[in-house]
Amino acid sequence: MAVVKANAYGHGLIEVSNILHSFGVEVFGVDNFEDALLLRQHFSEVQIVVLGYVLKKDLTLLVKSKIELVVYNFETVKILNEAGIKSGQKARVHLKVETGTSRQGVLLSEVNKFIDLLRQMSHVELVGLSTHFATAEEGGDNKFLVQQLEEFEKAEHQISKAGFSLEHIHCACSAAIILRPETQKTLVRAGLAMYGVWPSEKVKLAIPDCELKPVLSWKSRLAQIKELPAGTSVGYARTSVLEKTSRVAVVPVGYFDGYDRGLSSLAEVLVHGKRCQVLGRVCMNMMMINVTEVPEAKIEDEVILLGQGGEDTISIEELSNKAQTIPYEFLARLRQDLPRIVL
Fold it and tell me: What sign for the dihedral angle of Cα 242, 244, 245, 249?
């Protein structure tokens, strides 16, 4: 399963899905119903699985659109059955088992009750079983992951014993795909690693001979350049003051676009392959950088916010660490309507 939730981790839902589909990917995972419908408009035959919650009012259209749903509430299954009867087609569902994240999922003690309910539903077909690991990115012997897997396999045994034949049994996220082959059942859920980003530093260190290549670069252009004397303050609250005469450039990207305000006066960008410091506070729609050491810089020159320029690279790990967050969050917050260009 290609997980393309959160606008394909900020990379662009349709752009990424088109590429994946061209390489033969036939199962896509999203978090919400709206994304599922958008994918269905573009791909009439692929399997689309909603991993998150869908409102009761949308379940009928979900069934009609042949979109699959991860379930864990008894009421949802009953409504799906009614929708299936009305539409004349079966709702396809994946049962999620709670094994240790305390998020979505049916407790192991309730699996048999869920099985009994499903047997009564003429228009609900159980096609999948899933869970999610809490510590897959921690590496090491990971006893808690082993414990979760054992719980999941108990549920798998209960389902099998009840006579259900499942198309998809899935619990492996990116970190588990890389580190724990025993978690790879009939389907895996490829997320962050699919985009060339390590799920965590621990996972990266555990596989030193493996290289992941990020597929995303984020670029802008210089909107203005001016020379300012020493002592000039830059940005809101005058948090940055020039120590010497400097060339200051404006970049039309700000926290509205997903460039974290926590990067104020901390991050660097690349102009003509050279690092340029972010000056002062990142604004809503723009930020200022120091291009003093790039005398050739001129208006509308390219600015690399994330990615490679010349022999240097601004990595997602660098930015997320400076912003005191994780690559998942930084990428997922990239503004959805920023142009995505496929090269």
Answer: negative
Q: Give the active site residue among 5, 90, 96, 185.
A: 5
Catalytic residue among 86, 113, 236, 298: 236
Say how many CA atoms lie within 13 Å of 202 toward its Cβ. 12
* CATH code for residues 2-206: 3.20.20.10
pLDDT at 78 over 90: yes
Query: Which tens digits make up the pLDDT trace of 242-263?
Result: 999 999 999 999 999 999 999 9
Question: Is 194 among the annotated ligand-binding positions?
Answer: no
The reply to whether 5 belongs to the active site is yes
* CATH tag for 218-332 (out of 3.50.50.60, 3.40.50.2300, 2.40.50.140, 2.40.37.10): 2.40.37.10
Q: Is 284 annotated as a binding residue?
A: yes
Percent of the chain with pLDDT over 70: 100
Can 56 be counted among the known catalytic residues?
A: no
Average pLDDT value for the chain:
97
Q: List C-alpha distances in Å: 157 to 129, 146, 161, 165, 277.
A: 11, 16, 6, 11, 57
Q: Where in the chain is the domain with CATH 3.20.20.10?
A: 2-206
